[in-house]
Design a protein that fits this description.
The chain has two domains: about 25-240, Metal-dependent hydrolases (TIM Barrel, Alpha-Beta Barrel); about 245-340, Immunoglobulins (Immunoglobulin-like, Sandwich). The protein is about 15% helix and about 35% strand. It has five helices and 19 strands. The chain has helices at about 45-55, 75-80, 120-130, 175-190, 225-235; strands at about 25-35, 60-65, 85-95, 95-100, 135, 160-165, 200, 215-220, 235-240, 245-255, 255-260, 265, 270-280, 285-290, 290-300, 305-310, 320-325, 330-335, 335-340. β14 (about 285-290) and β15 (about 290-300) form a beta hairpin. About 50% of the residues are buried.
Length: about 350
């Protein structure tokens, strides 16, 4: 949604959330990197309600992204507790597109008062990168003024291809389909030039019962801001609309194997693509390469299945997977495994 203008800052003693949760090592963590409290226009939830919703859904982390303000950063310490990682961020709602600044410093504010013609975006992206933060092109085809993303993706780390806000009945719509298609078309060219941008999915929560639909599942070395952002930046992640969906994608060759966001050297040989998925009854799996959809297979009514497909680096520069519900809406999406 469109951002606030110059709003008075909330005055309170700052209690910032910890950047790392103890005792949580390497693993797959579920999180929603685009959520709003009532501090953002259109938002109706308190930070306490957001945290309760995240815990109920089964999320391990969230990123707080109020519109053009950081004044709620300091309330999250006692709310986060020792079981929910809260990443500090901001939704930067410029005149010609929105973007997420994730992992910024406590109280840091990123300017939003410009558009594509001012040609100042790069300096604001640099400010976020300088503190180790992540820059996300948000909902590139959002159907409202200022929401449509008019900047090039150059300089951004990640693209939000799935945004749940504008799909009240189902968290998938034509705007998400367009964003996914745009990202999918760019992968081959970006890989050829040595720099591809992973996909991410977020709820853009403003109201109750929206959080986590969709969310991103990230392979991180620990449950910390630094490790989660590193996993997202590397593309070691997949997206889903439900905590009931479980997914594993590996590509194996004679000399090893690789997972989502990783690279496999096939040494010119064949590679076996294997997808294990649960939680999508009667769904359809599609395997995508730079040539588009390369293979399809249906899932049983139990929603659990194993899909295998053979390829090679000569045939496929990358492999990624989509899983769709029977009605065609997306249930899960992976970032690619790169083949060389």
């Amino acid at each position: 949604m469109d951002g606030d203008e110059d709003v008075p800052e909330v005055r309170s003693q700052a209690h910032f959330p910890p950047r790392r949760l103890a005792g949580r090592g390497r693993g797959w963590y579920r999180g929603d990197c685009h959520v709003h409290s009532s501090r953002s226009n259109g938002g109706e939830l308190t930070p306490e309600q957001l945290a309760a919703g995240a815990r109920k859904f089964g999320l391990d982390f969230i990123a707080v992204t109020e519109h053009n303000t950081s004044d709620t950063h300091g309330v999250w310490g006692p709310i986060a507790g020792d079981d929910l990682l809260v990443i500090l961020g901001q939704e930067v709602t410029t005149r010609t597109g929105h973007w997420l600044a994730l992992g910024i410093e406590p109280g840091q504010l990123v300017d939003w008062r410009y558009g594509v013609r001012e040609d100042v975006l790069d300096q604001h992206l640099d400010q976020v990168h300088q503190v180790g933060g992540l820059c996300v092109a948000a909902h590139p085809h959002a159907p409202y003024p200022t929401g449509t993303f008019m900047y090039p993706f150059r300089g951004f780390d990640v693209v939000e291809v799935w945004n749940g806000l504008w799909s009240s009945d189902l968290p998938w719509n034509a705007d998400n389909e367009a964003a996914l298609a745009e990202w999918g078309r760019s992968l081959a060219a970006d890989l050829h030039h040595g720099r591809w941008r992973p996909a991410i999915g977020n709820s853009d929560t403003h109201l109750d019962e929206q959080i986590g639909i969709p969310h991103t599942v990230v392979l991180a070395e620990e449950l910390s801001t630094e490790a989660v952002l590193a996993g997202i930046r590397a593309g070691r992640s997949w997206i889903t609309d439900s905590a009931a969906v479980e997914l594993s994608l590996t590509v194996s060759g004679e000399h090893g194997s690789a997972g989502i966001g990783e690279q496999l050297d096939t040494h010119g040989g064949q590679a076996l693509v294997r997808l294990d998925v649960r939680g999508v009854p009667d769904g359809t799996v599609s395997v995508h390469t730079e040539q588009g959809v390369a293979y399809r297979e249906s899932l049983p009514s139990s929603g659990a299945g194993v899909v295998e497909w053979h390829t090679s680096a000569a045939e496929s520069a990358f492999v990624r997977v989509e899983v769709r519900h029977p009605h065609g809406h997306l249930a899960a999406l992976t970032n690619p495994v790169i083949l060389t």
